[in-house]
Structure formats: structure tokens, C-alpha cells
Amino acid sequence: MLLQCIVFWSFYVLKVNKIMNKSRSNKDSLKKPRGKFKKPGIDDFHKADPMPKDVFLRVNKILKNANLFRYIGNKPADSETALLERDFTKYLGVKYALALNSCSSAMFLSLISCGVRPGDKVLVPAFTFTAVPSAIIHAGAVPVLVECNERYCIDVDDLRKKISSETKALLLSHMRGHTADLERIVKLCKEKNIILIEDAAHSLGVLWNGQPVGTFGKVGCYSFQSYKIINGGEGGLLVTDDEEIIVKAIFLSGAYEKMYEKHFVKSKFFELYKNTLPAFNLRLHNISAAIIRPQIKKIEDKVAIYNKNYKFLINRLATSKNISIPKIDPRERMAPDSIQFKLCNLSLKEAKEFMNKVRDKGVSLYVFGVHEDNARFFWNWKYFQNSFPLEKTRNLLELTCDMRLPVSFRKVHIDYIADVILSVLNDIKKNEKN
Ligand SMILES: Cc1ncc(COP(=O)(O)O)c(C=O)c1O
């Protein structure tokens, strides 16, 4: 009996210790890793960010009460998804938010809610992810691609040129979190009577003149897909200050019958639009909301780490005359969870050699022009007719390097990455001279 008690007690202590260690490591996930530096490998660049401790508690609570569907409770406060929406309105300083299953859904519903109709033209930067023009196609509209500049942002002069009487909206994608001159763009859209919708999938945590990017247009769209600052697996958010737009988006997302009463939004427009709109069912799952919500309070800490790593890396890379780094606009507070820079005076063949050698040393960098089938290349979007050559964007992207900078990386990792990039570039240029 005594022996049985000892065995049971040892097992219990071991189990508790394991759980405690696990939760400690979750709690400390943004702190410096201890121990010897280990060279990063390709996989380290693509690991998803760890979950804060609160996520486990929230998810468990929901699993226990089985309230998985956002409309299962009696009131908004019973729904993790509605609480997520409320938290985001506070974080972003907007009136209304609608949680959805992806940013793609948020862009699609934004276009429809703003009155974009089949056949309308929607401007979109040529440097973005395929999901963005796809949302325009899904809404039955026609994407019109606009050139991008050396800061990887939309070229406002080309934007002005491409506006026509058929243009209904600009779906401004802040690709990789690079923010275009928002004052100029907001002014231009007003002058030309064009609806501004922001794709802020990569911009959570980014500020322009102190204001969150994604809150400048009529509607803003965010993503919680795993490679974004909040790792929700999948998920999206639509934000707006427009009461009519949020009501339409709530119905379109799948709020049937009186389900709208389970949102924190109160509006006379619910009665007006009831039963007049199709329901697409693009709602967020309560478990996803429980995963996403506790991560809001981690955004600022992550932004600080991203900026520290990014600035350290660009200072080192700027020492090479074969690298051109996009200028930082003093109006922008970046949240760089990745880096883009252009190779100078390298042929495509040399760029390929560079990419392969850097990757052989465990640094997961892609050169866009030599990465076939890349979903961020407008020339691979064969599902619609693009009638512009877009030489400027093509030339920019062909020699552009793209690399994730996970939040777990520290100065030692960044130093290693810079050493690899600079030494491989040096070798290639040296061989060329010999
Ligand atoms: C720039 C950009 N916009 C929008 C999206 C779509 O986001 P989601 O995967 O949440 O639909 C992505 C996806 O990665 C993206 O990169």
C-alpha cells in the first residue's frame, strides 16, 4: 500500500511539474531564450508564434461549456467572438468590428457592403497576395492593377492615372505592412469620389501618424492567419465607423433571423436590411476567437521586438552596395515581421545563386524573381485579364528578397543572418571580378 502511494505521488508530482513548465514556457514566450545560440535552420523561419497562457484557459473554458457557435448564448457578452469584436473596437479606436473566418472574407464583404457591383472597376496595387484581386473577382468586379514604388507601396501618380469613370473603389493592400502616403491617398479618393477599403492583413500594430493603419478608409480588413502578428490559424476582421456598412456586413456574414441582437452593435438599420441580403456564412468560430483574443495584448511587445530586429538587420545590410533597403517614412511606426530588400547589380542568374547559397546555410530567404509560381506575382494571376505591362513593379519584384523575421529571433540570430547574406553576396561579386 505504502509503495503504491509513493508511486502514485511521484507520478502526480512529475505530471504537475510538466504542466507548470509548459505554462511557464508559454508565459515567457516573448522573453529571451536561455542557453547556447543555435544557428537557425530553414524551418525556424516558418514556425508559428507560440500561444500565450491565457489561450489555453479560454479555449478550455469554451470546450467545457461547448459554446462553439458564436450565436449560441443569449446576449453578446456570452459570445467569445462578440467579445473579440468589442476588444478590437477599443484597440483600434473604431466604432464597429465584425469577426470573420478570414481577411479574404472581410475584403469580399467590404466590397459588397460598400456597394461595389458586378462589372465595377476596383484599383489594387500590383504587389500584393493573390487573395486580394481574388476578393474583387469574387464580388464580380474587375481588378485594375496599379504600379508600386521602391518602398513596396502603391505609386500614387500611377493610381491617379488609372482612375476612370468606371472606378468604384480602391482596395489598398498594405503589402508586407508597408504603408503608402495615406494623407495623399485619402485626399485623392475623396476628390475622385472613390471608396477606400484597406487590406491591412499585414498591418496590425502599424501606425501612420499615430493612427492604426486599417482605420483610414471606409472599411479596414485584418488577418489572423498563422503567419500574421496574431496567430489564429485562420481568421479575419472587418472594421468601420459606418453604421450602415456594419449592419450589411453582419447580415452578409451569416446573421440570420434575430442573430444580429447577439452583436454589441445596436442600429435602426437592422430592421431596414433584414431579409434583403444573401447570407454567405463567413462567421468566426468561438474557439478561433478564444485563440485570437488573448493575443491582442501581446501586439505591442511583439512590435517592439520586430522593430529592434529589423533596424539592427537593415543597419548591417546597408553596408553592402548590392542591397537597397526601402526608406522608412518618419510618419510610419512599422511592425516588421518580415523584411524586403532589393539586390542591385546582380543578374537573375546571380540572384538565383545567391538565394540557393543563402538557403543552404539555413537562412530562409526567397528572391521573388527566381521563385516560380509565387502567389505575390501579378504575372502568375492568370484568372483575370490584366492589360497593363507594369514594368516598374516587375523590375522591382524580380530582384526583391523576402524573408520572415519571427518574433523568437534575437540579436544573435539577426547577426548570423546578416553574416550569411553579406558573405554570400561578397563571394558572388568576387567571383564575377575574377
Ligand atoms: C496582403 C494580404 N492580404 C490579404 C490576405 C488574405 O488573408 P487571409 O488568409 O486571412 O484570407 C493575405 C494572406 O496572406 C495577404 O498576404
Record field, number of beta strands: 14
The molecules bound to the chains, other than polymers, are: pyridoxal-5'-phosphate
- Total of domains: 2
Tally of helical segments: 14
> Which regions contain 5 or more consecutive residues with pLDDT less than 50?
10-29
**How much of the sequence is in beta strands?**
5-15%
- CATH topology name of the largest domain: Aspartate Aminotransferase, domain 2
What distance separates the N and C termini?
81 Å
Order of strands, main sheet, comes to 1-9-8-5-4-2-3
Commentary on this structure:
The protein is α/β, with parallel strands linked by helices and 434 residues long. It has two domains: 53-297, Aspartate Aminotransferase, domain 2; 298-433, Aspartate Aminotransferase, domain 1, CATH 3.90.1150.10. Helices cover 40% and strands 14% of the residues. The protein is built from 14 helices and 14 strands. It has helices at 2-27, 53-65, 80-92, 103-113, 131-138, 156-162, 182-192, 243-253, 269-273, 286-292, 299-317, 348-360, 391-398, 411-433; strands spanning 96-100, 121-125, 142-146, 167-173, 195-199, 207-208, 211-212, 219-223, 236-240, 323-324, 332-333, 338-343, 365-367, 400-404. The protein has a seven-stranded mixed beta sheet, sandwiched between helices. Helix 4 packs across helix 8 (243-253) and helix 12 packs across helix 14 (411-433). Residues 10-29 have low confidence and may be disordered.
